[in-house]
Amino acid sequence: MKPHVICHTLISLDGRIHPSRWTESPDGDRKVWSSAYEKLHETLAGDAWLVGRVTMAEMSKAEAHPPAGPFAVARPHHFARRDADTYAIAFDRGGKLHFAKPDIGGDHVVVLLGPGVPDSHLAELANDGVSYVVATDEAMDARPLLDVLGSELGIERLLLEGGGNVNGSMMAAGVVDELSILVAPAIDGALGITGVFEVPDARGLVGKARLRLTSSETLEHGLVHLRYAVEPG
Asked: CB atoms < 10 A from the CB of 77, how many?
């Protein structure tokens, strides 16, 4: 069974997700908002958190270092650990992420890969103590991948904290159960910048989801925390 998925994000009033471009906080540094976001991350108590390749690349920062062949690798998945307290999960369709260690801040890394990823990359991940799941379909349907994370690793509560493409694809797939939206008193204003959810289909998420407000709370530094249940459209 798939984990309960909570999309947790920090946004400006115009729905943007990169604080570096936002107007300043009236209380000083924008970091007060990021700090509040991280505190809520802990409060939400996920077994795992999931991001896209671009976000994970900001944290992994390693170069390619495949071992010498021939390669004997496991497909469709390999788990270096099954007993971690928390997992750091990333979508990486093309196998472009590389790791210097098997964890991010103590959270064991699991990479979700496309079916075309070569054995040399899988061998590199396994040698580095990184776990992986190779999708069996080109579309990388999120539900079966989440089912594997639930059944194999016992993940019950996953925080989706990606960019607009990852968040949008997960919403469109109908696997998001809840939204945790932290709204900052800031404006981005840039043109053509990704928002919280990006869906290539021209109709977007119309008919795919309905949101029901479950709580709203005013926090320090002008922040508002909104939580929504996601119901089928």
From this structure: 19
